[in-house]
Amino acid sequence: MAQDSRFARVTLKLSITLAVIMIVLVVVLLVGTIITNVFAAKSTQSNPALYWVFLSLGSVFLSLVLAGTITYLVLSIKMVNLNRRQSNFIDSVTHELKSPLASLKLCIQTLTRYDVSPQEKLRFYEGMMEEVERLDLLINQVLRAGQLEAGLKIGDEPEEVNLCELLEGAARSVTVLHHLPPEKIQITCDPNVKITASRILLEMIFRNLLDNGIKYGGESPLVRVQVRQDGSRRLIVKITDNGPGIPKKMRKKVFQRFVRLGGELERRKKGTGLGLYIVMRCLRLLRGTIRVRPNKTGPGTSFFVFLPIETPENS
Questions:
Q1: How far apart are alpha carbons 170 and 185 in whole angstroms?
Q2: Number of domains in the chain
Q3: 143 and 117 assigned to the same domain
């Protein structure tokens, strides 16, 4: 948010400066045109070179006005997009906060006003714990996004990590969070595949990608994970869902902060638009990359994560 605020201030200053410059250029161009028409007609007859001087100056001023107008338009579009992203973020966070808070309030009111059986109390407590975990996940995502944007050190020291075990742990967490059976995330991986990297960063990457695949999957979500080694220096992790897919023009934009598909008030899926942003920033720290491609064998999207087997220390 801090970077977006700085960007907004800088863009506003540039827009005002460009507007003033273009007004001055238009005035100069109009005055020059009048002077040329009134006083230069006779002079150009006796000195043809003067005509080309006036024409060149007029062309330069006109080009500057055109360039300023285009730049002003680009800055205006960026400001509109920024305002829309910030509005979407506020709407999404509001929805994410209101739902668990309303559920917690209802549970507390029920427990304090009515006599319920021990079994029902246990069910209410489990539901309250789930809502607290949702709030904790939301707050952690916002905090991590801010830390990554500020360039603060995230994660622990690099260590040898069994990637299959890490993926299986992330899959269990995601399926439990969404109340789904474990088979909704299918992992194909050599159990001996290991990578030297920050465990925390790897967990953030794959938990967000698996959560994204479940949330935006089909009516019966199914996520497939395949791990293979590309030579001796790189691992490729392919994560495929069965959702509607991501339009081609949005495949890079979805990694920006607060970017989500569709209008915020029309969405049924929970989220803040920070998950894939966190994935991208964590991969940069690990010197990895990610690509988005449509699923070739059916509906859905495939995320290809490329990771060096040995990554440098997180700095």
A1: 10
A2: 3
A3: yes
Token pair listed for 55: 């024409």
CA distance 153 to 40: 67
Identify whether 90 is part of a domain: no
Range of the domain at 37: 2-85
Structure tokens at 96: 């994410």
Asked whether the whole model's pTM tops 0.85, one would answer no
- Of 64, 85, 106, the residue at which a domain comes to its end is 85
Q: Would you give the DSSP letter of residue 313?
A: P
pLDDT given for residue 7 in this prediction: 54
Q: Which two tokens stand for residue 294?
A: 């449509």
Q: Kindly list the distances between the CA atom of residue 273 and the CA atoms of 85, 252, 291, in Å, as whole numbers in the listed order.
A: 9, 13, 18
Residue 15 and residue 141 in one domain: no
Beta strands 185-188 and 223-230: pairing type? Answer: parallel
Question: In this structure, are 138 and 236 located in the same domain?
Answer: no
* C-alpha distances out from residue 5 to 11, 244, 296, Å: 10, 33, 40
Quick check: helix, strand or coil at residue 103?
helix
Taking residues 129-133, report their average pLDDT.
79
User: pLDDT tens, 201-244?
Assistant: 898 899 989 988 998 887 889 999 999 988 768 899 999 999 88
- Rounded to an integer, what distance in angstroms lies between the CA atom of residue 49 and that of residue 198? 70
What is the distance in angstroms between the CA of the first residue and the CA of the last residue of the chain? 22
If you write DSSP's letter for every residue of 57-75 in order, what string do you get? HHHHHHHHHHHHHHHHHHH
CB 193 within 8 A of CB 229: yes
pLDDT, tens only, 256-297: 776 766 544 334 566 666 788 888 888 988 899 999 998 887
Amino acid in the structure at residue 33: T
Same domain, 119 and 186: no
Token look-up 């020291």 returns 157
From 54, 85, 116, give the residue that closes a domain. 85
Mapped onto helix, strand or coil, the DSSP state of residue 30 is helix
